[in-house]
Amino acid sequence: MKTKPGICYLYLLALLACATCLSAQDAAPTVVAVNTDGTSLIYRVSDDGRLYQVWFGERLTHDADIAHLPGQGEAYLTHGMEDYFEPAIRMLHNDGNPSLLLRYASHEATQPQPGVTETVVTLRDDKYPVEVKLHFVAFAREDVIKTFAEITHREKKPVTLYNYASSLLHLSAGRYFLTEFAGDWAHEAVMTETPLTFGKKMLDTKLGSRANLFCSPFFMLALDGEARENTGRILMATLNWTGNFRFTFEVDQYNRLRILSGINPYASEYALPPGETFRTPELVFTFSAEGKGRASRHIHAWARKYQLKDGDKPRLTLLNNWEATYFDFNEEKLTAIMDEAVKLGVDMFLLDDGWFANKYPRSSDRQGLGDWDVTADKLPGGIGRLVDEAARRGLKFGLWIEPEMVNPKSELYEKHKDWVIHLPNRDEYYFRHQMVLDLSNPRVQDYVFGIVDSLKTKYPGIAYFKWDCNSPITNIYSPYLKDRQSHLYIEHVRGLYRVLARVNRKYPDLPMMLCSGGGGRSDYEALKYFTEFWPSDNTDAVERIFIQWSFSHFFPSKTLSAHVTSWGRQPLKFRTDVAMTGKLGFDIRIHEMNEAEQSYCRQAVQTFKRLSPLMGEGDLYRLHSPVESDHAALLYSDDARSHAVLFAFDIHPRYRENIRPLRLDGLDAGRMYRVEEICLMEGTRSRLPCHGNTYSGDYLMKAGIDVFSSSHTVSHVIEITEVR
Length: 724
Hints:
Elements: H1 5-26, E1 31-35, E2 39-45, E3 51-58, E4 73-74, E5 89-92, E6 103-113, E7 116-124, E8 130-139, E9 144-153, E10 159-164, E11 167-172, E12 176-184, E13 187-196, E14 199-204, E15 215-223, E16 233-240, E17 245-251, E18 256-263, E19 270-272, E20 278-279, E21 282-288, H2 291-307, E22 318-320, H3 322-325, H4 331-344, E23 348-351, H5 382-392, E24 396-401, E25 405-406, H6 411-415, E26 435-436, H7 442-458, E27 462-467, H8 488-506, E28 512-514, E29 532-533, H9 541-551, E30 561-564, H10 572-580, E31 583-586, H11 595-617, E32 619-624, E33 631-637, E34 643-650, E35 672-678, E36 694-696, H12 697-702, E37 714-722
Parallel strand pairs: 22-23, 23-24, 24-27, 27-28, 28-29, 30-31
Antiparallel strand pairs: 1-2, 2-3, 3-4, 5-10, 6-7, 7-8, 8-9, 9-20, 9-21, 10-19, 11-18, 12-13, 12-15, 14-17, 15-16, 16-21, 17-18, 25-26, 32-33, 33-34, 34-37, 35-36, 35-37
Helix pairs in contact: 7-8, 9-10, 10-11
């Protein structure tokens, strides 16, 4: 039977129409997926050409499921259009138009190194020549994502940026619980958890230089329940910025949460010239479906491998002179302390504040800061003699500096007041009798770099710097920036980074401690240039348990400088054991101890050095929180789960408290382990019932061992070794 020509033609048209329909159905929306081994952050381009986040959480394993995900919110919300909520970016154009509408243009993914993928999404405004690139760097094995934005334009004149977030994340849950880390000098990083309900909650700082004095640049966000160590979904995030920051948490009318992170835009409107790029700081975050313990281990592993200066190297043990002498010392006193350092067995002697200035000698914190010449009548042999004396004893030599600051009573202030941040026609306000040098000024950057460079050139034996920063920015005005005062907070930090980068390029093997009157600086951008930081001037061992516990959520133990001092009335063993859970150091007169105490400290130094690969590189398990009881316990385990060390502390337990066995973690249930208490005072023996026994990992993690007591300020260090 023959087919009629008209019918054949109609049939072909029907086939073409069907093919067109199928083609339209197959043209799925563009998807941008940022994946680690355990986490997915997924965006999708909508019909209006804008980019929306559709998922953030556990990794999705089937790409086909992405089509079913509902939109959660725009990837980089702008101002002036549908601006119901806090925008990620707000800009004023040359013609006075304050609006911006960003549409998806393209995206590409590259692999800069094995295990690391960088995805760059380009967004553009179709009315104005403005472009925003969103960068997402995924660290697969560590389950960490790093994100930042780059803003550029090609308008004829500068545009004004009022908001410029590093990140906008959307979450959807029944309840949200925010943990912030706030406090004050000697009371840093106090953890407080609060529920988030409708409206906005902000965490921010406006201090400029000693930026984290009251508020730390990191947070935890638990979903559907309070944060727990080993269960529950949790986001942990930290901003890599050594200046003013702001986190904004906004819950909308549908109980959806938006989190904006970045530089605090307070007093920081930024005029961006055509063709230049405004790069925001990096937000580093991780997601865990197994509580904050796993999230901490993610960030610790990422930091050691990718961010910390010398993240894979051991740290130096040291003896500092500060609490032994304060400003009152001479060469004889210092060399005597060096002899004590030799007896102690530490790697280095550290000379603290008080060694410099001649017209206004540094006899207190009221003068001399900024004049980095050695005080001649205090140290007639100069730093060189001290370096030589240390070397003669087999010690390294470290030195305290505070190069970003100046006392008004100094030669530097008298000669270069134009280098100092200060308001014209106003009385000066001092914080700790000092002011901040203007690091937005390239001449000041050269001067600050020159302090380190001159000391290292004259005394190449200097092996370490303790770099302090004791004042926030006061009298906020830059003589250098003149009519660009709203750039000060940003350009000052950028100037600091230029100095630190120059130091690192010329002296790449120079370890330094990041200090800021305690924990006033605790961010990972600074820690690109520093091997460790000083969490607090408060070295009371009980207080340090809490402070170091808080910081441990984001920082591995090798970054937390912890010194044994005379603060508090706790037994020396207790103070030393607490310091061993960080980066061990001493700031105490050894000769004032009895022989048993001296012997214990020497043993602690030896043990710390032996176990530092385990504690510095191993996984941290927080087993018992001091925030929730009068005891604390934490354990470090190696990757192979064959070796671990447990620290247990009785703080101030109640009388006849019901004490339960401590269940361990980080072991292998199928292996056998020998448990042995170490670091005992000379002439004593362990009274722990577990000492010397062998248990299965299964038993240790399910039944546990008795390590706590009703005694006050008692500590135990327990080594756990696989029996083969």
